[in-house]
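User: I would dearly like some help making sense of a protein record. This is the protein in question:
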Amino acid sequence: AKKAVEWKADGAVVGATRPKVIRKTKEILGTSVPIFSPGVGTQGGEIARSLKAGTDYFIIGRSITKAKTPGKAAAEFAKASVVLDP
């Protein structure tokens, strides 16, 4: 995470299944480098826990592409990721 700040990275990837790591990474990155988190859904990561820990963006693949109704699945993930009271 320190290198991401030093190198002025466009983002850092931290799995949504690791909220403690997200939190520690966010403490180092602050707002200078956004956190992208894969692993929501199929791998067990949770949107609410990841958002609370500091995730800025989600990378969601199989949970949408393998769903019986991908559009509905995508809409449900989008709705779950809206933060009304950060």
The CA atoms of residues 39 and 67 lie 15 Å apart. DSSP finds five helices and three strands in the chain. The helical segments are 2-6, 19-29, 47-53, 62-65, 70-80. The first strand starts at residue 12 and ends at 13.
